Here is the input.
Amino acid sequence: MSNKHVIVKKVEKKVWEESLNKSFEKNVKKAKVDGFREGKCPRNVFEKKYGVESLYNDAIDILLPSLYTEVLNESKLEPVVQPSIDIKSIDKDGVEIEFTIVTAPEVKIKKYTGLKVKKEKVKVTDEEIEAEVNRLRDQYAEIEIKDGKIENGDTAVIDFEGFKDDKAFDGGKGENYPLEIGSNTFIPGFEEALIGLKSGDKKDIKLTFPKDYPSEELKGQKVVFKVTIHEVKTRKLPEINEEFFDDLGIENVHSEKELKEHLKKDLTEQKEKDIDNKFIDDILEAVRKETTIELPEELIHEEIHHMLDTYDQRLHMQGLSLEQYLKFSKKSIDDLEDELKPEAEKNITYRYMMEEIAKKEKFEVTDKERDEEADRLAKMYQMTKEELIKAFGGKDMISYDLRMRKALEFLKENN
Here is the structure.
């Protein structure tokens, strides 16, 4: 069954004339006609100068909302994207408009239970706990001036200048630059060449830029960096003692044993979340393989643009615009849309797939459930219930979200 519906609506002369009159009332306000004050020109004079066709666009805009409502009421269709509109014919006596309405795609699921999707078991190793302890120690480490030689992990404060064919190149110079050895901030070989040097040392480092280096001038080129070591700093890790536990400020942690128990609990909870998320993804993917759905391009296109909006918002949070990102990554908007298309198709398939399962299993959400969820979310986000409902998109969206969660829990319990 096709989910594209073409409906042609003919607007009779009387209704069209009313829209033309409204269009004229709007356009005459800015019309400049000799012999008449602005906005006071009669319609016949206006049409003689500008033509009746100049009223068509606004007349159609005035007409469309009520006409579209009429089409939906008569057809009983529920569109999933904005309709495309085509003017089939138009003149002073009437207009004929073609609406192409896209409705939800048909979903067929062969099987969605008993798919035997495996869920990993949570396991936290002693090595992982030890790594967390070291991460915390590193977080509270103190930086000290070092009198000895540079080692991996130390920070060298350096002056450097790069030369190609005995000429300094752009971007190759720095003064009092704090370089952490092992951070791979500089090109391969630079940081390693500093190991063993000490404060006051100077060294010429001969290197070759990588062949995939962004600069056309430098990629694959042999260069020499003249380096002076001003200072060597090292990180002194704190002892695992009472002072360290005070600095951490973790409730009921006063010993190494208690710290490790606390970290094990945190790691276990995080792994449980990660494993549960992967389990959900694996279930949805398993059901998708059992699902047949034909996605209209209009629906995919709308999902891609929704994803682009979200992407743009994330970039703005990082101080970038979508245009800057595209320029930086040397991509066009079409390239980015092509990249997003598979994920958009997956998102839409999952959405309609879950709606179909909820429908088949007859999952419903009571007003009480919806209100309790609104109260819970409002408390979580420190908003009033009314603010939360508005931000969510209305009560129906809260009910929809709960319905989908019921369907998801059903899948987790039955696979």
